[in-house]
Design goal:
By secondary structure, this protein is of the alpha/beta class. It is 44% helix and 19% strand. Helix 3 crosses helix 4 and helix 5 packs parallel to helix 9. The protein is globular and about 60 Å long. The protein binds nicotinamide-adenine-dinucleotide, ligand LNCXM5UN and zinc ion (ZN). It catalyses: 7-phospho-2-dehydro-3-deoxy-D-arabino-heptonate = 3-dehydroquinate + phosphate.
């Protein structure tokens, strides 16, 4: 088993990575009180809920099964979590267990941040994307119809338990979406990892155990380092947002239905790379490498059909990185070296949108 620590100012928490962890007592070991509620969705429950609850039998263990899908990452669904906690009389010493992908993790984390002003929660991520990104770092949120993750809180989990065996049932499209966030770490801060991902593309696509575990470990290590240095995004944590300003606009435009988060991030990273080229920072050869690395996973590298430049402008203006009305973007100097923009030529953004949108 691999173990990493996320070292924060006030406390640290572990990330465990191995095949078969759901059958062990790791989750139980991080529950401090005598109540737990395992929250999952209707797709994951028949696959993995029993394996998780089996190890919690000496506690009051309640379960809640939510509908599946990004369109359900809402305040209304959050209310169902609070209703269940109240109905089963959970106290402030309860622990929530988020069993699922990033949608479940973000919602359960936010519910844990709010319920009785904050209770413990444990992340048990079941998608590649959640294992490499969303389960680590304590960003929790729900969407608003007008903007992605607009209502949320920073609330760190007690532990992250990554059982890589659950990826055996993950559909190919979801696996590829997770690879977009994996490639992101290479692009923003780890050029050797970027090259390693290219070299191991075939083995990763075949889901060979060792390279998949290594990709998860190196991703989590990158994320843990960034979060440890800037837990609440006062500075460099924003680099983890590469591609997300464009990507969140695409997700919102498509009503949180057609495009997966990782797919929107993929197209968004290509747009960010193109804008970096327009500013004279990134070389054309590197833009091509960014685009090819994502296209190799059949990820989108262009904007959704029908999305106009005005749609991007309107939705990007709501990005959480906007400061005093000024849009800040995460762009690339080169592969492995990202920055958050200060002043930049706004024509570079106009030219980028012209390159990706018909109108
Ligand atoms: N908090 C963060 O730092 C952070 C980081 C990245 C993404 N996110 C958020 O995460 C969400 C996307 O997460 P996601 O890509 O995991 O999507 P998801 O949670 O919707 O899961 C994707 C699909 O896979 C299914 N699934 C999950 N595990 C499975 C398994 N083992 N076998 C079979 N099917 C399985 C789910 O039921 C769902 O249909 C977005 O809302 C995004 O905003 C948050
Ligand atoms: O952990 C972070 O910080 C990230 O930005 C990770 C992103 O991959 C993730 O999608 C995150 O939810 C985006 O946050 P937001 O603040 O832009 O909504
Ligand atoms: Zn993301």
């Amino acid at each position: 088993m691999q173990k990493l620590d996320v070292s924060l100012a006030e406390r640290s928490y572990p990330i465990y990575i191995d095949r078969g962890l759901l059958g062990q007592d790791l989750i139980r070991g991080h529950v401090r009180g005598n109540q737990v509620m395992v929250v999952t969705n209707e797709t994951i429950a028949p696959l993995y809920l029993d394996a998780v609850t089996r190890g919690l039998g000496d506690l009051q263990c309640d379960t809640l099964i939510l509908p599946d899908g990004e369109q359900h990452k809402t305040l209304a669904t959050l209310e169902r979590i609070f209703d269940a906690l109240m109905a089963h009389r959970h106290s402030r010493t309860t622990t929530l267990v988020a069993l699922g992908g990033g949608v479940i993790g973000d919602m359960v984390g936010f519910a844990a941040a709010c319920y009785q002003r904050g209770v413990d929660f444990i992340q048990v991520p079941t998608t590649l994307l959640a294992q490499v990104d969303s389960s680590v770092g304590g960003k929790t949120a729900v969407n608003h119809p007008r903007g992605k993750n607009m209502i949320g809180a920073f609330h760190q989990p007690r532990a992250v338990v990554i059982d890589t065996a659950v990826l055996d049932t993950l559909p190919e499209r979801e696996f590829a979406a997770g690879m977009a966030e994996v490639i992101k770490y290479g692009l923003i801060r780890d050029p050797e990892f970027f090259q390693w991902l290219l070299d191991n593309q075939a083995a990763l696509a075949a889901r060979d155990t060792a390279p998949v575990a290594e990709a998860i470990l190196r991703s989590c290590r990158n994320k843990a380092e960034v979060v440890a240095a800037d837990e609440t995004e006062q500075g460099n944590r924003a680099l983890l947002n590469l591609g997300h300003t464009f990507g969140h606009a695409m997700e919102t435009f498509t009503g949180y239905r057609d495009w997966l988060h990782g797919e929107a991030v993929s197209a968004g990273m290509v747009m960010a790379a193109r804008m970096s080229l327009e500013l004279g920072w990134l070389k054309q050869a590197d833009l091509d490498r960014v685009s090819d690395s994502l296209a190799a996973w059949k990820l989108p590298v262009t904007a959704p059909e029908g999305m106009a430049r005005a749609d991007f402008s309107e939705l990007m203006a709501l990005d959480k990185k906007v400061q005093n009305g000024r849009l800040r973007l995460v762009l690339l100097n080169q592969i492995g070296d990202a920055l958050v923009t200060g002043e930049y030529d706004p024509n570079a953004l106009t030219r980028t949108l012209e390159a990706f949108c018909e109108r």
